[in-house]
Amino acid sequence: MADFTMKTDADGVAIITWDTQGKSMNVLNLDALAELEACIDEALADDAVKGVIVTSGKEGSFAGGMDLNVIAKMKEMAGDNPARGLMDGIMHMHTVLRKIERAGMDPKTNKGGKPVACAMPGTGLGIGFEIPLACHRIFVADNPKAKIGLPEIMVGIFPGAGGTTRLVRKMGAMTASPFLLEGKLSDPKKALSAGLIDEVVPADELMAKAKDWVLSEPRIVQPWDEKGYKMPGGAPYHPAGFMTFVGASAMVHGKTKGVYPAAKALLQAVYEGALVPFDTALKVEARNFVNVLMNPSSAAMIRSLFINKEALEKGANRPDVADQTVRRVGILGAGMMGAGIAYVSANAGIEVVLIDARQDAADKGKSYSEGILDKGISRKKVTEEKKQEVLDRITATTDYAALEGCDLIVEAVFEDVGVKAGVTEKTEAVIPADAIFATNTSTLPITELAKASKRPDQFIGIHFFSPVDKMLLVEIIKGEKTGDVAVAKALDFVRQIRKTPIVVNDARFFYANRCIIPYINEGVRMVTEGVSPVLIENAAKLVGMPLGPLQLTDETSIDLGVKIAKATRAAMGDDYDNDAADEVLFWLEGEGRLGRKSNAGFYAYDDKGKREGIWEGIAAKYKEADDQPSLTEVQHRLLFAQVLEAVRALKDGVLEDIREGDVGAILGWGFAPWSGGPFSWLDILGTPYAAERCDELAKTYGDRFATPALLREMADKGQSFYGRFGEGVDSKAA
Ligand code: NAD
């Protein structure tokens, strides 16, 4: 059966229904596009048809977007000229949508033509909103859960099926910018007040309202096809427009630091498109879109942030065991982490027992949820009823007996083996025999902690990042004896709380912290070499890291850095090779400069805690060298420090799937998202060049940059990580 079907009713209204076969939400592929075109052609040619309604056969949604494999298909179909294939494919998409928009009108007089309404039962994203934008009037069912918008920029592309050009011409560049540049999504009412759509109607009146409009003989020509059209807010050479574009250009560069090709290309499409007639603007949009699609960064971002992220969330690496949905979770320790975990669990509808050693501490942990919910109420995102519902799910207590009936425990007490062992024993005495026990430790080996458990196969690590309610990644760690049910339980729990999981094996610092620590250390080490701290910080940000290594150290606290350094040294003995960075951290700690929390660290802060600049004491102790390294040299040191650790984690079997390595790096510690993650970055560089760079860095700076054997072998064979370790089932590194 086709995805698009058409039926004309007795009043002459052709209803085109989109219903992607075998999917819960509509997505557009090339076959479906051809079907849509055939339906439109037929409706326009048929004299019995007075007007058209495009709608969806899916309850509560119009469409989720484009099937991103289409892009790969267009490239493939064009053989050795993929850019041509993309350009032709995209221009064809424009032709189809333009056909809807012109609807048979006379090109000179704009007379004739058939009205086309879009009736959206709910969510319309990406192409699922670009198609409505090409229709003459957009009706949306009053469904507060629906999301409407153009989120393409979030995965490294931009709306390239006319959405960019139409939205800017509809509302002006300035008003369109949050929707295009930030991928802002709106519920129907907000979309209406923003001017994205035309009407919000009760769900059961959606089709009737659209039909009334179609039969009302409305004027259908779009403003940009009228003579004398002026862009709202002014075109680039209008004084107001000039200000918009100068401002937008600076803002985009400030936010993206020039590393995201999509934002720049989008702005270029908008600017150049605004100077020319509509049909030429579509060509300009297409050309910029192709440019972005041909950029390896976009392909890598789509792969990691869309395809692989979704695959992991859907359980790509979940063992094949029965559903393990969590009903009642016991959380041990109501401190910073425990309180956050309690909130996200209760918010997802799970009953929570929140335990602490003292009742006031348990209550304080629960009040953390209250604080977040109150903030939600003040922003009109949460209702009083919802707040009460969530709080009612949390029992704050010191009584371990309350843990009876919990099917999952998440332990978040002090980072101390003895304390953790104590609570493990106490808890196992109460919980059902088949319950799973998880620890949120950030540094202690899971296998070691599992020794306190009578059921080590039911013992696992579930490592959250701080702040729990904001961070999207959860690292699940298998100890030596962890069984499949525990892994499935952890994955099902992470799915329930709507975060992205990666599953790794037990080793020092697991995966995320293992990679981020060398980044910090490399930055701090450079300070001792006389590299300008300002250069270090800016080099990091200009290569897409959210925080420079010195700022990151201040944020996570200098004393934590010292604690980790001491523990690592104790564990590694003679292999430990980080004296240079430690010297700086130990000195700052001695000076009482513990980072943001003490209003003093690598940076100076004012009384209100505002970061001012690098503290002058740094330059007094570590004189800046006259000769400073190049920006690229600093960036390579900072990035290779992380990606080599990721390669070692893969080699050691800590990572089993490079998709998890890439997705985890971006969501866990913000590794240069434009690159698609550490493995994607190495693939963009090419393994031969990456190995060559490592050789050079190792020669100049030391063995920590030595090319790992796996990378050397791949470089010799000219292999890429995604080529060798593939995707899907074959992605296991083993
Ligand atoms: P915290 O000090 O804020 O909270 C620990 C809580 O555990 C305190 O409220 C304490 O009263 C309680 N507690 C201690 N002993 C207890 C016992 N015997 N019974 C019941 N409650 C007890 O610490 P935190 O930052 O929330 O960290 C908790 C765990 O999470 C640690 O293992 C830590 O390594 C890990 N972790 C922390 C972070 C982070 O960024 N802070 C990130 C990931 C993981």
List the helices and strands and how they pair.
Elements: E1 4-8, E2 13-18, E3 27-28, H1 30-45, E4 51-56, E5 61-63, E6 65-66, H2 69-77, H3 82-102, E7 116-120, E8 123-125, H4 127-134, E9 137-141, E10 148-149, H5 163-171, H6 173-181, E11 185-186, H7 188-194, E12 199-201, H8 206-214, H9 239-256, H10 261-274, H11 278-293, H12 296-313, E13 328-332, H13 336-347, E14 351-355, H14 359-378, H15 384-392, E15 394-397, E16 408-411, H16 417-428, E17 436-439, H17 446-449, E18 459-464, E19 473-478, H18 484-496, E20 500-505, H19 512-528, H20 533-542, H21 549-556, H22 558-572, H23 579-590, E21 603-605, E22 611-614, H24 616-621, H25 631-651, H26 658-669, H27 678-685, H28 687-701, H29 709-717, H30 721-725
Parallel strand pairs: 2-4, 3-6, 4-7, 5-8, 7-9, 8-10, 9-12, 13-14, 13-16, 14-15, 16-17, 17-18, 19-20
Antiparallel strand pairs: 1-2, 10-11, 18-19, 21-22
